[in-house]
Amino acid sequence: MKRYTIDPITRLEGHGKIEIFCNDDGDVDNVYFQVPELRGFEKFCEGRGVEELSQIVTKICGVCPGCHHMASGKAADAVFGVEPPPTAKKLRELFYMAHYVHSHIAHFYALAAPDFVVGPTAPKAERNVLGVIGKVGKEIGTEVIKQRRIAQEIQALLGGHQTHVVMNTPGGVRKGLTEEERKDIEEKAKGFVEFAKFSLKIFNDVVLENKTYVDIILNGPYKLDLYSMGLVDENNKVNFYDGKVRVVDQDGKEHCKYAPDEYRDFVAERVEPWSYLKFPYLKKVGWKGFVDGKDSGVYHATPLSRLNASDGMATPLAQEHYEQMYATLGGKPVHHTLAMHWARLVELLYSAEHCLELAQDPEITGDDLQAKLDKTPTEGVGIVEAQRGTLTHHYWTDEKGIVTKANIIVGTTNNNAAICMSLKKAAQGIIKKGVTVDDGILNMVEMAFRAYDPCFSCATHSLPGDMRMIVNFRDKNGEIVRSIRRD
Amino acid sequence: MANEEKPKIKLAVYWGAACGGCCVSVLDVHESLFTVVEHADLVFWPIALDFKYADVEAMPDGHIDVTLFNGAVRNSENEHMAKLLRQKTKVLVAYGSCAHMGGIPGLANFTTKEEIFNRAYVTSESTVNPDKVFPRPEYEVPEGKLEIPVFYNDVRSLGQVVNVDYYLPGCPPQTERLVEVFMAIVTGAELPPPGSVVGALEKTQCDECKRKKSDNKKIKQFYRPWQIEDDGETCFLEQGVICMGPATRGGCGVRCIEGNAPCRGCYGPPVNAPDPGSKMMSAIATMIDSDDPGEIQKIVGTIDDPAGIFYRFSLPGSILRRKMT
Predict the structure, then answer these.
(1) What is the rounded CA–CA span in Å between residue A113 and residue A126?
(2) Domains and CATH numbers, chain B
(3) What is the dihedral of CA B29, B32, B37, B42, to 10 degrees?
(4) CB-based contact A271 B230, cutoff 8 Å
């Protein structure tokens, strides 16, 4: 038996390891995706004041801290039994749209673009963001960095701190927006809309106009028939900040739709002894192992699943592109993993348009920022849609608002089983008897993983360097029989 | 323009138990990134580049000029990498609150490994685990043996595991401070003695804070932030809200306070006051409006979760280190 070990997998937010086992014929038997870390937030949040958690849980992820800040803020609202005033809610959402713009820009240009703009089997030295800039021109590259910077600046303005934001307080926000600041954000949001349209055009010109790429998306080993999860508003349109969680099945039929405080009726988590990360699944369907199909409770929570789970986008231009995507890919729902990249750009356009709507909303500069906290704190759930999946925070407190218990299901965790299965499927489709495993082949396996995780990107998008990897082929005793270097 | 006379320094960035925010702070140099890569070759940075552990192991000792190690030491992999990078690096920098004093992951020292595992894998309300399966460092699957790192009972700061040359505090460090320190290194400026804190001010947060302070500090009761109507202008402590300003170094630009949130001490304790809790207690003592020891104790008793606030970012590196079990 041959064994490939990739340790650590790189260009991701956090630590990870992949073990690929091949049989004696060289075909892939099984693949394990292992997460080697745990920090124990749920335990050490106990004993803290509930209002402190929105600043503690941002430290779960420094790449998507805004998502944890929002889910935690909403959970604290629920603990106190209050809704923030309209201005406060809109300010949170305005911040959140900027957070999405920054993250989705970074992901597309850093991760997706090298594989498509430069090419999945292009020389590794070119298959990075500099290669992308080489193809599309330095002017565009500078624009990418600029737009991401502007999105970060809006977050710093509204959130107090540019990374570990301090905006939320139970029932409201700590700081309002002046008319001058509003005008500034309005102009910047107009720039986002143009940039998002431009990004979709690049996707169209580079990917969709290229038959080979369309073939990889539609016919490559990157398809899983999974349930799709996403947050929707009262019209079943995609919403990132608020609403109900909707899950549709493999045919697009609604499996369930639940309010935040009902999550435990619909989602359960499984523990495997070989990974520190749990494996959520749909409770009513049940855990049937790492398999897809209607009988298996494995689901995904990604840009694509969000579009699948919705009836459309709440803004006009994003809706046009939503319709175009489904028309091109053969109707709803879509189960091609690589279509996540396209869905992410549709979401980028929605975030930009909604950012502009909020910046033009007369209520955004209001001064009623805080609901009155006059109820005894008890228990509450907050759910938002993080870039990497539905994010659930659930807190219990004593009568003073000191946390007695916390339960958190994080965006990427939703996709843990799906990522394992995508890697196995890609490896089985690509690594076969008679196939020489070279750099391009390895990259085709990695593409299955990349589609899920926008946080890989925050770092990769502007740094030069080799995309280097070593894969060891081991025999049963763990002895290296062959080593491939990609450098 | 590349500096042709002076060779580029070899730079590595690595994370232990961390959130990725420190790596983002490096990326937030934005357009200045091009200046950084003029002066430095990045030789290892898992979030951004595909160099593997084997590449680091193959390097001669002292090969890397500067390593920015962020994150705490939580498991056996973190410890192994801390020791390996120490061996391969000339100047090892503990970058950010977690490497500096243990940071937010260090709050786990209020509990134990057993309690953490039990909560995460058994009692969590969404977890279904009747057989009480726990992740194990080694596990036999049908295809072979799988391994994951050993989860330790205690979180440690980097300096508690290896010798550290410099500490660059903050959660995350402000990018401007990083650039200053980086430029000092590449231009060959004289560096402070090893073991120093760099990229932070000698002054405290209070010296930088724009909020109004009087000498009239008369606290009769402490409040949680949501229990008062903050006027946005008066010193938090004067409003009875715990703010770690007096026990925290400056250097961050008081951004949380400017965002109307009290300081929680991520930049670490000031010079000559190595323990933030003791420093905070003495700061508070001068502000309480009473001379009666019984009443003082009663007023101090109105602070909720003092240890969790005073040692928010520093429990492993503090005199407490952990909750006794």
Answers:
(1) 12
(2) 9-104+155-197 (3.40.50.700), 112-152 (no CATH), 205-310 (no CATH)
(3) 0
(4) no
Give the number of A-B residue pairs with CB atoms closer than 8 Å.
Answer: 278
Residue A346 lies in a domain: yes
Write out pLDDT tens, residues A276-306: 999 999 999 999 999 999 999 999 999 999 9
In this complex, which of B48, B120, B141 lies closest to A274 when CB atoms are compared?
B141
Please report the ipTM that was assigned to this predicted complex. 0.94
Among B110, B139, B134, B138, residue whose Cα is nearest residue B124: B134
How many domains does chain A fold into? 1
Domain carrying residue A57? 41-372+406-417
pLDDT of residue A451: 78
Structural domain includes residue A275: yes
B58 near A CB under 8 A: no
Pull the structure tokens for residue A80.
């106190």
Q: Which portions of chain A are predicted below pLDDT 50?
A: 454-487
Residue A332 lies in a domain: yes
Interchain CB contact of B76 with A (< 8 Å): no
Query: Are β-strands A379-386 and B138-141 bridged in parallel, bridged antiparallel, or unpaired?
Result: unpaired
pLDDT at A455: 41
A172 close to A85: Cβ distance less than 8 angstroms: yes
| Among B39, B148, B171, B211, the residue to mutate for chain A (most A Cβ within 10 A) | B148
Kindly report the CATH number assigned to the domain that includes residue A93. Answer: 1.10.645.10
Below-50 pLDDT ranges, chain B:
1-3
Residue A258 in contact with partner chain B when CB distance is under 8 A = no
Closest to A105 measured CA to CA, from A116, A113, A95 = A113
Do B124 and A42 meet the contact criterion of CB atoms below 8 Å apart?
yes
